[in-house]
Write a structure and sequence with these properties.
Number of helices: 15
Largest sheet: 2 strands, antiparallel
Helix content: 55-70%
Strand content: under 5%
Distance between the termini: 15 Å
Structural class: mainly alpha
Strand order of the largest sheet: 1-2
Shape: globular
Length: about 350
């Protein structure tokens, strides 16, 4: 099994991008049956355009840059409306990645205003970033803003809050991360568990954690005091997640109970593929061990792409393992695929 050529990878990324850019998800149906309409600053959209910005930085392809520019101009570089809410900060990653193309202080003002709320009135990470997805959504924006402004307060705040959150969500028995407090054993047997009694470890949530580290380190100074600790978290988590890859290359929505929802799932698989490929590319992970895992994952992801470029098998918005269908598609799933492609393309060279 091989990854194909670099051109093959880039072509797949472009197909997925073009479909999603032209078919942005407008609404999702909640579990309650009510419809939620997606705003441009919501996390589903913010993840997609932040990953598109990463694709531009990785390839220099101006088609991606033009898309992110249009997005940023459409939103007015605004964050989401909710203070101290990581999901409303992920769009800042896109803005900061392309800021040099505008270089207008006004374009930074909404991001600075939103992040200053947290920096000026610090809270525990486990209070603001209480769910594991948040470690991907917000921390990379703080680091990128610190680099852009030259002000270390954003990086230092992020570092303190990140570790408080990560240590709170870590299960020391498995080395995996709980999605949030509802799944952490409290000694009274009140935590949510799988039907088979096992702990609940949601693959996409853990994928967000693994993928957060490359995004954070991209803008963190090489000599930053805790940089090595992020690498340690990353390598330990990588060693754990590869245990749960299935024979077909996918990870299922529930790591410890894959039989509950046996359908493939592409967003977690893409996030794991991205993280592992980054680890091999940077020399943090052993190529002999991890390359076969990456090759199987990438082959599986290619099977998710419909003839029209739509990526399927994406678990829709959730906070726990659920069923998935081939026709399930949403913006962040395409974004995760594009992130994976940026690193797989380097491996395929």
């Amino acid at each position: 099994m091989t990854l194909g050529t670099k051109q093959d990878v880039l072509q797949a990324m472009k197909r997925v991008y073009r479909y999603q850019a032209e078919n942005q998800t407008r609404s999702v149906v909640r579990r309650s049956g009510k419809t939620r309409f997606i705003k441009d600053t919501d996390w589903e959209r913010g993840v997609f355009w932040s990953c598109t910005a990463a694709a531009w930085k990785a390839t220099g392809d101006t088609e991606y840059l033009d898309g992110v520019k249009n997005y940023a101009l459409h939103t007015g570089f605004r964050t989401g409306p909710n203070a101290r809410f990581a999901d409303d900060h992920v769009c800042c990653q896109a803005y900061l990645d392309i800021y040099s193309e505008f270089n207008q202080p006004e374009a930074l003002e909404p991001t600075i205003k939103a992040l200053d709320i947290m920096v000026n009135e610090p809270e525990l990470g486990r209070k603001d970033w209480w769910w594991c997805d948040s470690l991907f959504m917000a921390p990379p924006a703080f680091v990128a803003l610190s680099k852009q402004t030259g002000d270390s307060k954003y990086l230092d705040y992020m570092n303190t809050a990140f570790w408080d959150s990560a240590e709170h969500l870590l299960d020391t028995e498995t080395g995996l991360y709980y999605r949030d407090y509802r799944y952490i054993p409290n000694g009274n047997g009140e935590e949510l568990r799988e039907e088979n009694g096992s702990k609940v470890f949601w693959s996409r949530g853990i994928g967000w954690v693994l993928a957060s580290v490359p995004r954070i380190l991209a803008n963190m100074p090489e000599d930053y005091m805790n940089r090595s600790e992020y690498i340690t978290l990353f390598t330990h988590l990588a060693a754990e997640v590869i245990k749960y890859q299935q024979d077909d290359g996918f990870w299922r929505t529930s790591l410890l109970a894959p039989e509950n929802f046996p359908a493939p799932e592409s967003s977690a698989t893409a996030l794991f593929c991205y993280g592992l490929a980054w680890g091999v590319n940077t020399g943090e992970l052993d190529k002999e061990i991890y390359l076969p895992v990456i090759e199987k994952a990438w082959a599986a992801l290619l099977e998710c792409i419909h003839d029209n470029g739509m990526i399927g098998w994406v678990q829709l918005p959730a906070f726990n393992p659920r069923d998935v269908k081939f026709e399930h598609n949403i913006d962040y799933g395409a974004g995760a695929f594009m992130l994976a492609a940026t690193e797989v393309a380097k491996l395929a060279e």
